[in-house]
Amino acid sequence: MEGDERKRVLVVGGSGYLGQHLLAALGSASASAGDGDVDVAFTHHRDAAPRQLLDALPGIRAFRVDLRSGEGLEAISASFGQPHVIVNCAAISVPRACETDPAAAMATNVPSSLVNWSLSFGNDKSLLIHLSTDQVYEGVKSFYKEEDEMLPVNMYGKSKVAAEKFITEKCSNYAILRSSIIYGPQTISPVDKSPYSGNITNCPKAVSNYKVHALWMQWMDDVLSQGQEVNFFNDEYRCPVYVKDMVDVILSFTKSWLSDGKKVQVLLNIGGPDRVSRLQMAESVANVRGYSHSTIKSVPASSVNRGVASPPDISMDITKLTQMLGIQPITFHDGVRATLDAEAST
C-alpha cells in the first residue's frame, strides 16, 4: 500500500450479526490508534441502515446495495472510492431458505456482482475476505481439513462451494474463511433471538439448525431458565466459534494487507477448538448458569423433518489457522461464559 494513500475498508452485509461486531472493532481500533487514514463503510440491503448502528459509529458510512444485481455499488465508487479491503459477510445462510429458492441462494451467495465491481478498478489493490461455511463439507467424518473434498449435502453448501470457486478463479487476492456457527454477545442494533424467525421446523420443542438466528445461545439460556422442555440433537457436531475470535481473524488479514499489500491467496477453516453436539451446547449453557439438565432432551437429528439435508459432523481442524495467524480461539465453555456474562451486563 502507498504510504500517503487513505485506506478504505468496506464491510458487505455490515448490518448483520458478524458485520456489526466487525464494524465496532474497526471503529474501536481506529479510535484507539488515532488512525485517521482508514475510512470504513458498510453495505446493507434494507431501505435504511440501522439507526442505532449509525449513531454508535458516526464515522462509518452506509450504502444500500443489492448484491444480486450489483445496484448501489457504483455509488460506493463515486463517493467512497475503491476499497483496499472488502469483507463479504452477506449471505442467505438459512439452509431451508436456500433449498426453497435455489436461484436466490446462488444469486446472493455467489458474489459475482461484487467481485466484478472490484475487478473493474483494473488493479490488484483490493483484498477480498469472504465468509464461507463448514457446510461445504459432506459431514461424514470429524475434523475436516481445508484440502478435504467439498461435497455439500444442501443448496446452502452448494452455493458456498460455487462462491469459493468463483472467487479463486477471478480474484488475485483473497482470504476465504470457512466458518462454523458463530455465537457471542448481542449487537449494537439488536438482532432477533428467536430461532423460529426463518422457520425451519414446525416442531416447537426441536432445535435443529442454529444458523437461522445469531443469538442461539441466548435463546437456549431463555428457554432453559424458564424450565421449558426442549429437544437437542445428540448426533450433529460443529465447532462453534466465538464472534470476537472471528473478528480477530478478519482484522489480522486486514491489517497485514493494509500494511504491506503482499499477495494473499488463503483458504482457512475458522472454528472453535471444541467439537460439540447440539445437546452438548445446551448442557454447557445449563452448566454455566446452574440450570437443571432435566428439561434438556437428547434426540437424534432424524427425529425432525427439517425439509433440508444437514451434514452430521462438520467439525473442522483449525491447525492451519493457529499456525498461520497465531490466533487461538477460546474454548466453547469459556465462550459460553463470556456470552452469558455479556448478556447479564446488559
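The above is record 1. Record 2 follows with the same two-line structure.
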Amino acid sequence: IVAIHGLDGHREASWTANNGKLWLRDFLPQDVQSARILTYGYDAYTQSTATSSTQTLDSYAESFLARLAAFRARSDTTKRPIIFIAHSLGGIILKDALIRASQAHRDHLVEHKWIALSTCGILFLGTPHQGTTAVTNPANQLLKLASLSSPTNNVLLKHLLSNSDWLEQQSSSYNAICGNFQTKFFHETLPTVVLDKSSQIIVPKFSAVISGANMEVVGMSKDHSGMTKFASQRDDDFIFISTTIQDMMKKVHLQSNSVGLS
C-alpha cells in the first residue's frame, strides 16, 4: 500500500490528525496485517520563495516511479501487488507515473513495467482530474489558495489550470490503461475555510472523478485537508476506507493465485 500526499503536503503530517494519530501507521496495519504500508514524500512546496520547488508534474512522476521501482527491486518485491492511496495533486502525479510505467518495455526498465502490471487498486482522495472553464474550476481554487500568502510555484501549478492541454492529454492516456484497476473516487462534502475566512469546496464531485473509469464515487464528510486524517478507528470514513482496502486485497490475492504475482 503506497500513500502519496498532495500540494504542500508531507509524507507523515498530511496523514496525521490533530491528536497525533497517523492512521496509516496507528490504525490501518491492524486491519491489513499482511500488507506493507509506505508513504511517499516529495517537494511540492509552493508557498515559500526560499523552498518553493521548480519541478514539473512530469518530473515528479518520473522521480516517484524511479524511487518506488528501486525500493521494490532492493527489497526483492518487484512483482508484489500494489494499492495506491493518493490525495489531491498526488493523484495527478500517480496517474502520470502509471502511464509512464505502462509504456515501459519489458526489456528496458522492467521494474517500472511491473509497477503498472502490479497495480490492483487505487483510492483517489480529492484529486482534481477534470479541467473546466467554470469559475469553480478546482485547479484555479488550488492556485488561489496557494497564492494567498506568498508567490507560488507556477511551473508546478500551470498544468492544473482550466483548458490545460497537459491535463487533457493525461486523461486520455490514463483512460487507456486504467480498465483493470479497482478504483474508488472520494470527494469532500464539507467546505474548506481559507485565509480570507471564506469557505469553499476545493475539489467538487464532478472534478474528483474520471468519466468512464472502472469506478465507484464516495462522498466523505470532511473538508479537502481533513479527508486524509482520522483521529480514531471509529471514524466512519476510516472504517469505509479500511474496508475498501481489505476488499481490494481479497481480490488481489485471488488474482495473484491465478497470474503468479508475489
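The CA atoms of residues 61 and 97 lie 5 Å apart.
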